[in-house]
Amino acid sequence: MRSIKYILVVYDVNEKRINKVHKVLKKYIIWQQNSTFEGNVTQANIKRMIYELNKKINSKEDSILIYFFNSKTVIRKEVDGIEKWNVSSNFI
Amino acid sequence: MRSIKYILVVYDVNEKRINKVHKVLKKYIIWQQNSTFEGNVTQANIKRMIYELNKKINSKEDSILIYFFNSKTVIRKEVDGIEKWNVSSNFI
Question: Would residue A46 count as lying in a domain?
């Protein structure tokens, strides 16, 4: 059985690399707001995503935090302000 | 018994308001990297924090995502790149 995780990814990377990181993440999970993605991903795709991300960043300068959850049910999320993912033109 | 939640806060706010949001969050939880804070907080302090945040942001333009967890144990976290919270001078 394919094991699926729910993941949340937030990144703090040099401006020169933001687009590259954004493009990798967009292939696997869903944009929420600048520097923040979420979604269900298979273990295999998590490996691919991390491999690709590590090729794009400068590991001495950039930081990507990946939070893993067994399912979305353990997460309660509140939004203060606007839901940027619903206002797609705002993505960067 | 004081109920404690583990929370993760990520924000995408106008540059003019970043410092204000940062200063509120720093009172309650721990800076991880730009736009990202985490920590254990009482329910009462969560209310205070959200009240203060909403006074600082422009709710038509800014976005703050707050993720609530019953405990830190449901979270597995991986860092790719550097741990910015360990390199404190990098905080903005």
Answer: yes
